């Protein structure tokens, strides 16, 4: 899927640009690990605020990151969350998460199988039959979603398909995955 939506432009808010950069960086980082990966969740914090609160963090960041944090008040650092609670699905996992006020936003990556609407309408309603049918369907597409939201309201999504697994083929935009955007927003409430 070609990137038909450009990255945020200079006329967008610094927060929106920083979030888009963070989501693209997270998606690229996760892509380097390959496909068939578990859900991954990231806290997003303003880098300079994190450095002010914990000066020793500077030793873990590159000089480029430190310079960017000084130049851009909304520069974000992503912190992968380990030891997430067990959950039967992504929706249940997200419903159980909440974040302290020191976290400026949250991002998640997840893989999904999608079908064209005409094929989806033919899917068996019995869940025990639906999964094998879906996995065997010739029109199925494996996708990786990377979605981020900020407390101040900005959103950004990146979508990569397994069929077009290339950094220059990642679709992106602020509302590409609205259901996941809403679920992430609820974790910040």
Structure summary, number of beta strands: 6
Overall mean confidence score, pLDDT: 91
Measured on Cα atoms, how large is the radius of gyration? Answer: 18 Å
Estimate the strand proportion: 15-25%
- What's the oligomerization state? single chain
Order of helices and strands: HEHHEHEHHEEEH
Shape: elongated
Which residues sit in consecutive blocks of at least 5 with pLDDT less than 50? 1-5
N/C terminus separation: 33 Å
Supply the helix-strand structural class: alpha+beta
Structure explained in plain terms:
The chain has 189 residues and is an alpha+beta fold. The protein has a domain at 101-189. The protein is built from seven helices and six strands. The protein has helices spanning 14-31, 47-53, 63-71, 90-95, 117-120, 127-136, 178-187; strands at residues 40-46, 76-80, 105-114, 141-150, 155-161, 171-173. The protein is elongated, with a radius of gyration of 18 Å. InterPro entries: PPA1309-like (IPR047681).
């Amino acid at each position: 899927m070609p990137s038909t939506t450009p990255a945020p432009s200079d006329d967008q808010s610094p927060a929106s640009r920083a979030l888009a950069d963070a989501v693209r960086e997270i998606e690229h980082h996760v892509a380097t690990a390959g496909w068939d990966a578990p859900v991954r969740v990231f806290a997003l914090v303003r880098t300079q605020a994190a450095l002010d609160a914990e000066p020793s963090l500077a030793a873990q960041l590159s000089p480029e990151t430190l310079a960017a944090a000084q130049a851009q008040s909304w520069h974000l650092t992503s912190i992968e969350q380990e030891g997430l609670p067990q959950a039967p699905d992504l929706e249940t996992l997200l419903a159980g998460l909440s974040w302290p006020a020191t976290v400026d936003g949250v991002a998640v990556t997840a893989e999904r199988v999608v079908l064209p609407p005409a094929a989806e309408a033919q899917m068996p309603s019995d869940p025990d039959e639906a999964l094998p049918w879906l996995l065997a369907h010739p029109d199925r597409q494996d996708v990786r979603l990377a979605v981020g939201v900020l407390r101040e309201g900005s959103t950004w999504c990146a979508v990569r398909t397994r069929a077009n697994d290339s950094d220059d083929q990642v679709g992106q935009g602020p509302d590409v995955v609205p259901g996941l955007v809403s679920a992430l927003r609820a974790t910040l409430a």
